[in-house]
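job 3f2a | input accepted
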Amino acid sequence: MFSSSTLVYSLSLFISISLLFFLLSPHILLSSSRHNLLSTADDLEDLSLFHRAAVSTTNNRRLISLSLIPPPKIAFLFLTNSDLSFLPLWESFFQGHEDLYNVYIHADPTSTVSPLIDSSINAKFIPARKTARASPTLISAERRLLASAILDDPNNLYFALVSQHCIPLHSFSYIHNHLFSSSSDQQSFIEILSDEPFLPKRYNARGDNAMLPEIRYEDFRVGSQFFVLAKRHALMVIKERKLWRKFRLPCFDNESCYPEEHYFPTLLSLEDPKGCSHFTLTRVNWTGSVGGHPHTYGASEVSPHLIHSLRRSNSSLDYFFARKFSPDSLQPLMGIADAVIFRD
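job 3f2a | predicted structure (344 res):
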């Protein structure tokens, strides 16, 4: 028979465990749901892709002939979870430059985007997985796009990440010429910020000190999700393992959890801060933002004045791209494409 002390101890233990489960169950459920989007099998498949891309770059470097230097290309990486509404505008943007670009699309499996889409840009749909806000799945998707583009064409030397809501603000020639105007190592254009007022909450979104020891608070950075990376930095991203182990952890504070806006700025700030511009080439209007989403331009707002104003920046370069635009703005954008957008 149990003694009274044993019974009291057992009852206390049961109550403690029950209370602990009650307090932590939301976090447990959240952790489970987040990790279900990033299974071990998916992670291993990604690692295999990243390894093949890194090895291919080494092999291609050995085979380069100095007597024949191919023209450098820009890889446009489309990250989408809905229809590519602005495809006609992008087709006009790419027209006549078939040897200078490649297009890769990561379409969320739950979206309506079809790999059989009829497009003159010859886009390549890469194997995609479900993505979700406040989770590391967007980091995975972007790394997957980078690796696929590196593996597909060794002449991809710049990698521009855009969304289904992005539009170009200049002609293709303008953008290509500015990116490859220097003969030295290309710079990456990515926003890297260290003085934002919300930085502490974002750093602790996974729990106090959860990022240690790999990522100290003073090394943590934030920035825009959209970037233009030079190839050496794209390779750095797909080879990286240590920081990813932290950023793949689930967040408990969803309101402060935007891993894709943290991982890339933090990594590149740690590895090569002088090789990055610290500003983005994609213009976003956060005035009147709702639910973490920026202002969406509608058809009535499209005008030559809007395009010219969106181009202007505080850096030495104009903005190359802009978001966010609603599908109904396509027609007025097409109406000013040749006369305004593609006339630099």
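job 3f2a | The first strand starts at residue 73 and ends at 80.
job 3f2a | closed
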